[in-house]
Write the structure tokens for this entry.
Amino acid sequence: MKIGVLALQGDFAEHIAMLRRLGVEMVEVRLPHHLHDLDGLIIPGGESTTIGKLAIDFGLLQPLQEFGRSRAIWGTCAGAIFLSKDVGRPQPLLGLMDIKVARNAFGRQVDSFEADLDIPELNKISGVDRPYHAIFIRAPIIDEVYGQAKVLSRLDDGRIVAAQQGRLLATSFHPELTDDARFHEYFLSLAR
Ligand code: GLN
């Protein structure tokens, strides 16, 4: 199995470190031909407008959309925004997931926070029943999950922070910044 990490902008290095830790063959994706023989792709956190503009500049927008029609993609934070169909304002999007996202929904950088989440799918694949500690940095909220997408996790107040649509995953938070590899393992199980 070979997993790509979109390395245009943002915290791709942390995803790469996590994949190395899990012993997965990994490729940094900067150009369309890097997608060639991948089983899955991670789009990191960062700034979704910048990632979108760079994806257009490097001719990646259409290749990424095609990739996502048959293979696994996981977007964390800015990556989740980029995967969505609607952010309520004009910016380049892959438009692959039936989710509506609100950017910076918790406020500014200083309003970043951590929370323990209940994610039944992670408990299932790891066989361990324990909360998932999630880090939110100028995070988006997933306002609507419709069509083929389903909710994976909510905050205690009910707001949606993780969704899945077949092999596509979107998380408002940053699993690459924790020690807990369960979310990466879950994504690998979708890419397999
Ligand atoms: N606020 C960023 C955006 O709207 C996302 C932040 C992040 O990826 N940590 O694109």
